[in-house]
Structure formats: C-alpha cells, structure tokens
Amino acid sequence: xxxxxxxxxxxxxxxxxxxxxxxxxxxxxxxxxxxxxxxxxxxxxxxxxxxxxxxxxxxxxxxxxxxxxxxxxxxxxxxxxxxxxxxxxxxxxxxxxxxxxxxxxxxxxxxxxxxxxxxxxxxxxxxxxxxxxxxxxxxxxxxxxxxxxxxxxxxxxxxxxxxxxxxxxxxxxxxxxxxxxxxxxxxxxxxxxxxxxxxxxxxxxxxxxxxxxxxxxxxxxxxxxxxxxxxxxxxxxxxxxxxxxxxxxxxxxxxxxxxxxxxxxxxxxxxxxxxxxxxxxxxxxxxxxxxxxxxxxxxxxxxxxxxx
Length: 308
Hints:
The chain is built from three helices and 19 strands.
C-alpha cells in the first residue's frame, strides 16, 4: 500500500523492484540497533556467505566489523600484504625519489612512522611518499607535500642539533674549481688547465652556538641572559672536532654535507662575555645522493632500497 508516495516500510523506494539511485552515496548512518557488520562494495555480483563477507578485496569500499572499534579501513588486509613500509622524499621539480626510511612490518603498530627529516632546506617544497612493500614489490604511493621555513643556522649530526640565531652568526663560502694557468710564449692570454672535475664548496662559519632542546624545538638558553651561552662553548668545540660529517643548514635555503676542517677558534667579540666560535668546513657530498648519505654515515638505508 502506498500513501502519499510512501509505503508501510517508510521509504518511497523500499518496495521498488529496482531500488537504483543516481546520486553518489557519501554518508551512511546506523542507529537504534545492534549490527554485526557494515559492508559496502563496488561489486554488482557480490554474494554473502553465511551472512558475512568472505574477505576484503579490491572492490571493497569499506567494511566495519565492529570488533570493539568502528574502523572500516583495510589495515588488517594491508598487514597481510605488507612486509615493509618505505618512506621516500623528493624536492619540488625532481622526478627521482630518495629513500630515507625503511621499516619492517610485523604488527599493526608498525604502521606508525615517526621520522625527523633533517635534510630539508629552508623554503624548499618537499614531497613525501609512504610506500607499502611486499617482499620487493611496491604498492600504491600515498604522498603529501610540505615546505619548511626557519630563520636560524643549524649544524646537525645524527639526532644532535646545534644552532644560532642568524643575527649571532654567519657563513662565508668559496666555490672550489681547482685549475692552473699557463703562459704561452707567443700568446697574450694564458691557457686555463683543469685536470679534475672537482667542484665543491668550502666555508667559514662564526657564531654563538647552543643545543636545540629535545622538547619544543627551542634553544637551551634565555634571551634575557644570552651570556649563559658561554657554558656551551666547550661542548660545541668537542662536537665540531669529533671528525664525524655533519649537516649545515642556513635560513636562505642553502644546505651542505660537510667535514669540519682546520682548527676552530674561540674569540671575544669586543666584550669578554660576548664570544664567537669560528670554524672552517669543506663540502663532503651531495644531500640528494643516497650513496653519499649512506657512505658518510647519514643514512642506514641499504643499497637494495635505493631508487634505481
């Protein structure tokens, strides 16, 4: 029986032979009942087995089994087909991905990734992708982009970060292209000779460096009492003289992998308590090279995971 376009069930199409709607379904609500499953699929020939779906497949849109959770995603299905999670990055305009983190997956908790990426330059747009891998076979990339901006100078080794307000420090750089000139007997101008493809930067940095606190990403000193930074001078000296390669980042977007060279100095700047540390460095490798990062000790990603 239909009354005013509705039936005794309450829906205008509840008893229709072909209850087909043309509009997309973007909202589902269940209430006032006890439910075992909510299963939505794209398959037109789907058949229930014992009143329950058999498994999650590529036609499944969502499946909430209500096992103490309202999760309707395919995390369990992904766990069965994922041996590793791989985190990759690439700078804007760069086609080639760089693998920066690999994690073996054995449980649902392993799908959580917390990785600090220190290889991002200020003002540079970087795209990240998380890739599920099943014993060498990559799945679908899930990607996002970020742009990091900072106004300080940093020197980083592993998880240790030292820095300075840019007004308290500076870096001067030189591009090195080793060459020599030869004067010709009958020539007005010399001949330039370059017998190497060497092309790298060297520099000298000065400033009052302090460590970055683990919580809050703030420098470990009070702005009202800047002189207390003196107590960090010896620790910073030990840090830059340990012979381990480091990351140098400037707020103008420049970034290098470096070795600290020569002998650093600690000198007073007009006043005894106003001191600067000066140190020289030489470029050690390419920050976008997985090979350089690995052999310089910045990355533990084995060659099998490098982008080919």
